[in-house]
Amino acid sequence: MATAPRPRTTTRDPEELAARLTAWLDRRLPGATVSGLAVPGSNGMSSETLLFDLEHPDAPVRGCALRLAADPAAYTVFPVYDMARQHRVMALVADHTDVPVPRVLWLEEDAEPLGAPFFVMARAEGRVPPDVMPYTYEGNWLHAATDAQRALLEAESVGILARLHDQFPAKEAEFLLPDGTGSPLRRHVDAQRVYYAWVVAGLAPSPLIEAAFARLEELWPDDEGPAVLCWGDARIGNIVYDGFTPAAVLDWEMAACAPREVDLGWTVYLHRFFQDLTVGFGQPGLPGFLRREAIERRYAELTGHTPRAMEFHTLYAALRHAIVMLRIAYRQAYFGEVEVPADPDRLILHHATLAAMVRGAYWTGES
Q: 95, 110, 233, 242: which one is catalytic?
């Protein structure tokens, strides 16, 4: 992890993007100028973010962030990038809750101006727990914080989920349901099966991922619980913090109408992913931070809803992450950054964790 090259996140030319963005903005605000255009070093692979300053007397804000769908010619991580859907979710969250989301400004669904659809929002100021190297490693602001400061950040972050799930009208989230039949959870899982089939089409499938799908069926909860608006990519690396309290919640592309535990399982597992990697590379990480039992307890205190079937939901989170990681690995192979091993399960960085969850051994501490 410490020496592997970071997968490329873009195939676009920043200078060309800047020129095209300036031309597009001039049609919205004639005479507007763009300065300080930057591509954050933490840019993801599912979409790209551009930061810039906007100068114009009628500009709604000065600091802007632009979310641009992935280049369709660059072996995308997901098959569809629905920027209008993300834009709508963020606007609705702002309308119905007090969850801090950046103010959305303009939506462009035509791919012609920048090569793919995009939207512009107000830039959030603050700091984000890093992914590379992850915040569980030494040498970043969150690792260097005190236990009390991290406890505050943890409590406030779980509070984001509680407020989102409780305040957002569940009926308003139903437009996010995937096509199909059955409960919201069944549709969510079925959509992941479709995504997995797309990832491995023409390539080696993953026996481990397929075993995890089978294990999900064995663990399927008797009571799935009510569906709510789920953030989707519910993790602290998608929150901008002012000190140790959330200032902006980002990355809504995985938003869903699903049981609350879909978000809770993702929050628990994504931290464990970083923590397990850190321990595997000889550092202690942050063993007392974002522990499953603490997250469940805090959430229950805030909402009155006791999280249920969390073995199912943490396995489901690890499974979903494994599918994404397999796609990213095949993407790296496409660009000549890695070679595909004989066992495709080895492309999944957390394959040992997922295998332990399939066996029911992970949370017991068994090997």
A: 233
